Amino acid sequence: MNKRKNFIAGNWKMNGTLDTISEISKIDKLSEGYEGDIALCLPNTIISKANENISHKKLLIGAQNCHHEESGAYTGDVSAKMLKDAGAKVIIVGHSERRQIYKETNEIISKKAESIINSDLLTIICIGETEEEKNMGLTSTTVCTQLKNSMPSISNETNTVVAYEPIWAIGTGRIPSLKEIEVVHKELRSLVSKIKGIDTANKMRFLYGGSVKPNNARDIFDLTDVDGALIGGASLKSDDFMGIINVC
Ligand code: PEP
């Protein structure tokens, strides 16, 4: 079995202005001794300033979305290349809020992930079922279809991380049972094994996301196929975020 490095990523969503950079600096300082990878995916407006205020020893600054083209007539959008220019090292794609609110399809998410990888950045591809799909017994079909169609052919264990985020668990304080998380992660790894081979599947990192807090993180991280977490609300405050990192 390959030893995978843990990965903890925070997603600040549409939160954070220049006056919150001090919180990022705190996370940067407190995380220096951590052995895994840590990222904070910030609003585009503070990426550059955040980068100026960190030591670059451990914390990776990232973004939460991008356009799939490199440049052009796409008013209001930014490309992976532009985010890299601002200092982003990692970009999330396919977050359920992008899929649901902005109607992003697997195909568009795959193109975005491809553009991120082609810009030599890391992409976190998010997938996850709705509560209705879960109740209908469709979790596995839903997340496997999403992953199969959102992961570009150039994805591998060094340029792609997968985040399983049940939509009904995001921001709700509810999480699946540990057994359910383990089963989904195993299925996703086995899907990647079928598509890309066992070596890539064993090395690729799969994160769990959805209401991860300092008090439930340890049990989730203990699961064999869980390599870390994507964290929303609890990444906004350094105490909560570090509380999770400290148990990882
Ligand atoms: C998220 O939005 O990706 C997320 C996991 O949010 P939370 O941790 O707040 O549930």
Number of strands: 8
Q: Rg from C-alpha positions?
A: 17 Å
Annotated CATH topology: TIM Barrel
The run of helices and strands is: EHEHEHEHHEHHEHHEHEH
CATH architecture annotation: Alpha-Beta Barrel
| Low-confidence sequence ranges | none
Helix content: 25-40%
Reported for the largest beta sheet, the result is: 8 strands, parallel, barrel
Structural class category: alpha/beta
State which percent range the strand residues make up: 15-25%
Report how far apart the termini are.
Answer: 19 Å
Q: How many helical stretches?
A: 11
User: What does the overall shape look like?
Assistant: globular
Bound molecules: phosphoenolpyruvate
Q: How would you state the average pLDDT, rounded?
A: 97
Features:
globular, single chain, 11 helices, 248 residues, eight-stranded parallel beta barrel, TIM Barrel, alpha/beta, binds phosphoenolpyruvate
Summarize the SSE layout with pairings.
Elements: E1 7-11, H1 21-30, E2 37-41, H2 47-52, E3 59-63, H3 80-86, E4 90-93, H4 96-101, H5 106-118, E5 122-127, H6 131-135, H7 139-150, E6 160-164, H8 178-196, H9 198-203, E7 205-209, H10 217-221, E8 228-231, H11 238-247
Parallel strand pairs: 1-2, 1-8, 2-3, 3-4, 4-5, 5-6, 6-7, 7-8
Helix pairs in contact: 1-11, 5-7, 7-8
Molecular structure report:
It is a single chain. This protein is α/β, with parallel strands linked by helices and 248 residues long. It has a single domain (7-247), classed as TIM Barrel (Alpha-Beta Barrel). It has helices spanning 21-30, 47-52, 80-86, 96-101, 106-118, 131-135, 139-150, 178-196, 198-203, 217-221, 238-247; strands at 7-11, 37-41, 59-63, 90-93, 122-127, 160-164, 205-209, 228-231. It has an eight-stranded parallel barrel with strand order 1-2-3-4-5-6-7-8, surrounded by five helices. The longest helix has 19 residues, at 178-196. The radius of gyration is 17 Å and the shape is globular. The protein starts with 6 loop residues before the first strand and ends with a helix. Phosphoenolpyruvate is lined by residues 11, 165, 170-171, 209-212, 230-234. The site of phosphoenolpyruvate (PEP) has 13 residues, from strand 8.
